[in-house]
Amino acid sequence: MPNLFMFEKPIGMRDTLPDLFRLKESVRSRMAKETKLYGYRFLDTPSLEFYETVGQVSAIKDQQLFKLLDKEGHSLVLRPDMTAPIARVASSHLLKEGNPLRMAYSANVFRAQEKEGGRLAEFEQFGVEMIGDKTLSADAEVVTLLTSVLQAAGLSHYHITIGHIAFVHEVLRHYGGTEERAGVMRRYLFEKNYVGYREYVVELNLPESSQQILNKLPELKGNEEVLDLALELTEQNVGSTALRELKELAHMLKKAGNNSHLSFDLTLVSHMDYYTGILFEVLGDHVGFPLGNGGRYNELYRNFGQDAPATGFGLRLDRIIEAIGAVDAEEPPLCVIYNEAGQFAAMEKAAALRAEGKAVVTQNIDGIAEPDTFTKNFTNILYMLGANGLGEES
Amino acid sequence: MNDRLTVAMPKGRIFDEAVELLRKADYQLPPEFEDTRKLIIELEHEPLRFILSKPMDVPTYVEYGVADIGIAGKDVMMEEERDVYELLDLQISACHLAVAGLPNTEMSKVAPKIASKYPNIASQYFREQGEQVEIIKLNGSIELAPMIGLADRIVDIVSTGQTLRENGLVEYATIKKVTSRLIANPVSYRLHEREITDMVARLRNVLNVHA
């Protein structure tokens, strides 16, 4: 092995060292506990899937997929998200009666990137899927669960922005005039390029009133009042079903008592052509990238021969941990240092303590290279040296 | 969290015009603002903090969220393709991206070479033209490349065209008009929506464009 590569990892790959591992574990278990309280059941799927099925229906761009070939020459992908694999499993095993299913996962997903540091190619995603329920109550449940999970994770400052893809579609199509123009405008909004969007609207030479409404669209964000503003702005039947859904969702969330972290953005266009209704983004302080996102995707299951409306969210554990910030210090285990004569007594002592649930390190003194530095790792050390096995604690 | 908005400013060509624009929008910038060598400037009377960076790096600071907003040329935005909001055309530092080369020359039929500070823009442009080219990345004085035979063409920004003329080069095609843009980090844009919307409105007022 050439020396150059001895300690290196492929781009975007990271080690999880003990301190981070512990933090991740505790955050994950708190989030999972909350999720289970809502009756969601955890599952896992293989890391590798077929490119033709899961790879192609996933919302992740083709060039971001890690692809490889199996012995028969089938193209495989490292799963880029969990939504598509769960759709595959649910369609083949779980959805027989077509009743609502509540699924949850916490799993590593893979997305190739070649750009630069700070962008992981493998990261843990925590999420839920609520499958087979088309009602708005399902959307409300997912958002409610999302806020509970974020709070359980220990985040005090977070923010959920909600939009509705059907509203964007209908407004762009109606006032832009054609499907093609709506597509161009949607792409500008997706790229967050308001300058390009406005230039294009001017270029179209639309009637004054249409132009005004299209220009106002990027400003339709903020608290619940924007929904009324949007209703006033647009004509009847243009996006009004979507707005009514959003209003009702807002109402349900208010009743559930968690609307303080919510806002609305009627231009929210996440993954193109993936979400079909209400969608949302999760943001946190201190982190320049979204913590996660989610929404309704009623078409995905058709790829697996099922007609199952679904909604869900996915959160990035690495970014949630970044948003939480501080790492609480862990109490180091008790260290029992023994010599040959004290070995059996030390083992007995350790076994008794472990039975009480206490963490104990047992270390033969002959195995220690540098006693001064070794003992610095512990606050409590018990020496069990000598024939009588009597210990002294320091 | 620091409640100040952090603004990434490009050093050099765009800087003075951007400062002038901010002053017109009634932002109280200190008089020595232009002359300082500091890289981070905190304002006393405004909840603003400025960081001064290379123009090409502004979208990077903004995308990672260490700067909430920034001022960047469209050329840099096209080259870097960062995930940031492009909120407003500031209409300053107007120039255009162009293809230039020695007059009356054809591109090599075998492996045409293009030198540029903008390898992504150059390769995308020629791909759209259906031409297969090889890109050579340079960091400045791009005009040299065709003059001494490193490349058949260059892709660079042109404002008055004087540098091209003085070096005996001519423009073959315009790729895109370029002006500076106000950009914002997607998360900051939501969490500091009020402040950022206010800035957009004040700048828009100065620019005399209407929503």
Protein architecture, described:
The complex is a heterodimer of chains A (394) and B (211). By secondary structure, chain A is α+β, with helices and mostly antiparallel strands. Chain A has 13 helices and 16 strands. Chain A has helices at 18-37, 51-57, 83-94, 136-153, 165-176, 179-190, 194-203, 208-216, 225-233, 240-255, 317-324, 343-355, 371-375, and strands spanning 41-42, 48-50, 67-69, 75-78, 101-110, 122-131, 158-164, 221-222, 262-265, 278-284, 292-296, 310-316, 334-338, 360-364, 381-384, 391-393. In chain A, strands 1-5-6-12-11-10-7-9-8 form a 9-stranded mixed sheet, sandwiched between helices. A 4-stranded mixed sheet of chain A has the order 14-13-15-16, covered by helices on one side. Chain A has a 3-stranded antiparallel sheet with strand order 2-4-3. In chain A, β15 (381-384) and β16 (391-393) form a beta hairpin. In chain A, α1 packs antiparallel against α4 (136-153). Chain A is elongated. Chain A starts with 17 loop residues before the first helix and ends with a strand. With 211 residues, chain B is an alpha/beta fold. Chain B folds into 2 domains: 5-93 and 179-207, 3-Layer(aba) Sandwich (D-Maltodextrin-Binding Protein, domain 2), CATH 3.40.190.10; 95-176, Periplasmic binding protein-like II (D-Maltodextrin-Binding Protein, domain 2), CATH 3.40.190.10. In chain B, 31% of the residues lie in helices and 28% in strands. Chain B has helices at residues 13-24, 58-63, 74-80, 119-128, 144-147, 162-166, 186-191, 193-207; strands at 5-10, 40-42, 48-53, 69-73, 85-89, 95-101, 113-116, 134-137, 153-158, 170-178, 180-184. In chain B, the strands form 2 sheets. A 6-stranded mixed sheet of chain B has the order 2-3-1-4-11-5. A 5-stranded mixed sheet of chain B has the order 8-7-9-6-10. The longest helix of chain B has 15 residues, at 193-207. The chains are: A alpha+beta (394), B alpha/beta (211). The A-B interface holds A 118, 157, 159, 161, 191-196, 199, 215-216, 219, 221-222, 263, 265, 281, 283-290 and B 1, 63-66, 83-89, 181, 185-188, 190-191, 193, 197, 211.
